[in-house]
Amino acid sequence: MSTFDPAWLRLREPADSAARASVLERLLKTALPAREPLSIIDLAAGTGSNLRYLAPRLGGSQAWRLVDADADLLAAVSDHLAAHGWELADDGRLAQGHGVRARIATEARDLARDAVPADADLVTASALLDLVSGAWIDRLAAACAASGAAALLTLSVDGTLAWEPVAELDGEVRALVNRHQQRDKGFGPALGPHAPQAAVAAFERHGYGVETAASPWRLGPGDAQLQQHLHAGWASAASAVAPDREAAIHDWLAHRMDLLAAGIGSVEVGHLDVLALPGG
Predict the structure, then answer these.
(1) Which Gene3D superfamilies has this protein been placed in (predicted)?
(2) I want to staple 159 with a disulfide (CB 3.0 to 4.6 A). Which of 41, 107, 111, 193 is the partner?
(3) Cis peptide before 165, with omega less than 30 degrees from 0?
(4) CA atoms within 13 A on the CB side of 21
């Protein structure tokens, strides 16, 4: 199963927060049961960025269970909360801040192989669905249906990569990256840009009402560090799919990096957020 560099998670967090579809969060807050604490499971939680974003928007008293295969990332949750202005009890299990009181538990679990936990009021995940298979999404929807949990699944890529200014190789690189995103990431053949619609179909089969909303990254020259990281990753992915095109892709990357160094260049990275509510 894929794990992620903490530096990459830290770099992308502001872009994630700016992109998320607030309309779905408002619908979710209205639909959740009026009880405290509200129980929430966060899948592939990493260092807790989803908690830091979503908890203040839900408000009140909450109990979070952060699940990830990487125990080292989970061990850093308390430090990241403190760095974002939360006050923590000595054991790091109770956090207060931003109008929220949250009890936090962490669990190292291989989500690719183990049962998907869903015994909560809400199951949430960010930037996960495009890494998994259709069969895994079916397991997730079935687990949520069995417990009656709502699901908020955010920042799944939808295949959109649109650059400004346009370069000759953009379309080819986009197609190769989308092909690479469908390689096995540890969960079986990944859905990549097809993941949001697969999630919609899976939850609807289990009787859920499903809403979607776009949540694109719109990155400009002020996001140069994140853009540099992304472009290097895209070039590597495209070259892995089409090694015979490596030289041309390297030239494309050099052109994009030159633009960024000159304070020029923007890119839109398409994502889709999915909200699934039980009861249709």
Answers:
(1) Vaccinia Virus protein VP39
(2) 193
(3) yes
(4) 22
Q: Where are the alpha helices (DSSP H) in the chain?
A: 6-19, 22-31, 49-58, 71-75, 77-83, 134-147, 170-180, 195-205, 224-241, 246-261
- pTM over 0.85? The answer is yes
According to the CATH classification, is domain 6-157+186-217+271-277 in 3.90.180.10? no
> What's the pLDDT score for residue 174?
98
Q: What is the rounded distance in angstroms from the CA atom of residue 174 to the CA atom of residue 160?
A: 8
Q: Are strands 122-126 and 38-43 parallel, antiparallel or unpaired?
A: parallel
pLDDT confidence of residue 2: 44
Domain extent listing, the chain = 6-157+186-217+271-277
60 by Cβ neighbours in 10 Å (0-12 / 13-18 / 19+) ranks as middle
173, with CB counted inside 10 A (0-12, 13-18, 19+), is buried
Confidence class for position 23, pLDDT limits 50, 70, 90: very high
